[in-house]
Automatic annotation (TrEMBL):
SUPFAM superfamilies: lambda repressor-like DNA-binding domains
Ranges of residues in domain HTH cro/C1-type: 61-122
InterPro entries for the chain: Cro/C1-type_HTH (IPR001387), Lambda_DNA-bd_dom_sf (IPR010982)
Protein's UniProt name: HTH cro/C1-type domain-containing protein
Highest taxon in the source lineage: Bacteria
Length: 129
């Protein structure tokens, strides 16, 4: 397979997807929507594991909750600091939302408590075993 160079910009609020590729794998078209994009990304080795990792799932959930609360990252950090009475910086919120694997369970706990987590439902792939 030839080398594929993919530059991707996703605009979460508008849902707009922009791509710029120097080459596409034979038979692969430019993704037109989220489902096409996910199919493309999942075909790249290692991407599926990253997209569906715990840190990515938690980051997406916290990001969506922050938007629902109409808070900027800095405002959320201040709120977490106020609720937990422990320091929290905007850069930590950014790393969480970016899916950083270096976030501790204690940090997730503090943020989730501050944004009002009531319950956490885990879904498992029935084909996992």
């Amino acid at each position: 397979m030839d080398k594929v160079v993919l530059c991707l910009a996703i605009f979460p609020i508008s849902g707009e997807i922009r791509t710029n590729t120097s080459e596409w794998v034979t038979g692969m078209s430019n993704p037109k929507n989220h489902e096409d994009l996910m199919d493309l990304l999942e075909s790249v080795p290692g991407v599926k594991e990253t997209v569906y990792s715990f840190s990515s799932i938690m980051g997406k959930a916290i990001y969506q909750r922050r938007l629902a609360l109409k808070l900027a990252q800095g405002e959320l950090a201040q709120h977490v600091q106020h609720v937990t009475e422990e320091p929290m910086d905007q850069s930590v919120i950014s790393r969480i939302e970016g899916g950083s694997r270096e976030i501790t369970s204690e940090t997730y706990d503090r943020v989730l408590r501050a944004i009002g987590l009531k319950d956490l439902e885990l879904k498992f792939d029935s084909d996992a075993l």
